[in-house]
Amino acid sequence: MERDIYDEDHEAFRDLVKDFVKRHVNNEAIEKWNADGEVDRATMLAAGEAGIIGLSVPEEFGGAGMLQDYRFRAVVNEEVIAAGAGSLAGAFGIQDDLAVPYLVHMGTQEQKEKWLPRMATGEVIGALAMTEPGAGSDLRGIKTTAKKVDGGYVVNGAKTFISSGATADLVVTFVKTGEGNRPDAFSLVLIENGMEGFDHGKKLHKMGFQGHDTAELSFSDVFVPEENLIGGKEGMGFIQLMMNLPLERLSIGVAGAAAAQAALDWTVAYTKDREAFGERIIDFQNSRFTIADMATTVDALWAYIDRALLAYKDGKLSAEEAAKVKFWATEREWEVLDAGVQLHGGYGYITEYPIARAFLDARVHRIYGGTNEIMREIVGRQIAGKR
Ligand SMILES: Cc1cc2nc3c(=O)[nH]c(=O)nc-3n(C[C@H](O)[C@H](O)[C@H](O)COP(=O)(O)OP(=O)(O)OC[C@H]3O[C@@H](n4cnc5c(N)ncnc54)[C@H](O)[C@@H]3O)c2cc1C
């Protein structure tokens, strides 16, 4: 089904992204990122120079000023994932969807001026640290504290599973500034690379997204100046996290749809090329039925995602609607990828093949950004009229 949500600006931008992909994404680069467990800084800087990160950064701070129009980010996801570089798409996603928005939408003027220009160029890599060893889904169970002292806060605690955590220069960190677990007991602070007592910890070995770092972080008596409190207001952290939820969930849904589309395209190409019993794999009825299912699922995915992209642009995508998108899209993604792997036979299991990498990457889409169980809980609670 033809999609119709992109206009000529988006298509011109797609050409820019395609050009970047042609110059910077190839097997050698992907292998290097996978071996190093991170995307190299030169690639992030090149992305900054090409203007394909920092999309929501206002023009006055050196960005593209696309604010609420996530369609441009969707284009980046589509092209980078189609090139088999899920890890690079992940690194871009953390920068643009998880770190930058807290400064663009909630930062003080001083914070914006200090950080956004360098986030748009890729000189400053951001991360968002919420999860802790003892608290993931239940975020109000975090133990990292920020105690008020003269001129700022002293932070103690640990975070885990932080995407871009090893390479980040700036970490938007969810901390407790009050007692108990009421929403106003939490704040977001900016913790900078090099602050005394801040340790990036070790990179975690994952089944997928091998080329994008995920790390543990620890904070031992880290002094964070008052001006690093996001928005300059204490007790707003939980509300600030809630404000970015629609975007976070939409971004995972879009990445899921882009991976499903890529899996379909790779599978069609592969099954037209490979033969068994004197016939192309696609000439077996079972293959055609499977591909028909994949193609129809991908059409339905885009129809839903495109509707959500437009709702987001108009400021109408609620956290609950975005939760539906996140869990439904990532589950369809999983089905499509699994079917695609099967039609690739043994090669579908070999990580040299993009479908194998995308399959492994896809698994975490159902876990992070709020697990799919938590997404269903949010949707079900709203329908049931429970808070
Ligand atoms: C590769 C990767 C990257 C990540 N990146 C980041 C990042 O950049 N920043 C960050 O802060 N975090 C990040 N995370 C953490 C991620 O968001 C959490 O792992 C996720 O929210 C789940 O939390 P948990 O691991 O503590 O699982 P738990 O909360 O312990 O959940 C375990 C299981 O119990 C289920 N469960 C829990 N509560 C309920 C309930 N009320 N009802 C029904 N079922 C429930 C869950 O769905 C899950 O199946 C990342 C994780 C991974 C693996």
From TrEMBL:
**Alphabetical list of InterPro entries matching this protein:** Acyl-CoA_DH_CS, Acyl-CoA_Oxase/DH_mid-dom, Acyl-CoA_Oxase/DH_mid-dom_sf, AcylCo_DH-like_C, AcylCo_DH/oxidase_C, AcylCoA_DH/ox_N, AcylCoA_DH/ox_N_sf, AcylCoA_DH/oxidase_NM_dom_sf
Please tell me whether the keyword Flavoprotein is annotated for this protein.
Answer: yes
* Cofactor(s), names only, from the UniProt record: FAD
Q: A Pfam family this protein belongs to?
A: Acyl-CoA_dh_1
Ranges for the Acyl-CoA dehydrogenase/oxidase C-terminal domain? 235-383
Q: Which family would the database say this protein is a member of?
A: Belongs to the acyl-CoA dehydrogenase family.
Q: What is the name of the protein in this document?
A: Acyl-CoA dehydrogenase
Source species of the chain:
Microbacterium algeriense
